[in-house]
Amino acid sequence: MARVCEVTGKKPITGNKVSHSNIKTKRRFNPNLQTKRFFLAEEDKWITLKVSGEAIRTINKNGLLTVVKELRAKGVAV
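Below the sequence we write its predicted structure tokens.
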């Protein structure tokens, strides 16, 4: 499960590629994942997370410490 956001849980979904002649073939829609380093000031250390664009906005809005606490409550090692 390499293409999964650690914060939101987003993962690839499937759909159809539709040609001009309306022929449908299967394809994958991958999430916008980025490997990003965040500085956790309360613990004075850097953490690396594989997060989606939406998760980066969530971290900016709610704060890194809040998001890390929620991840640890779920049992994710951060």
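The chain has one domain: 13-74.
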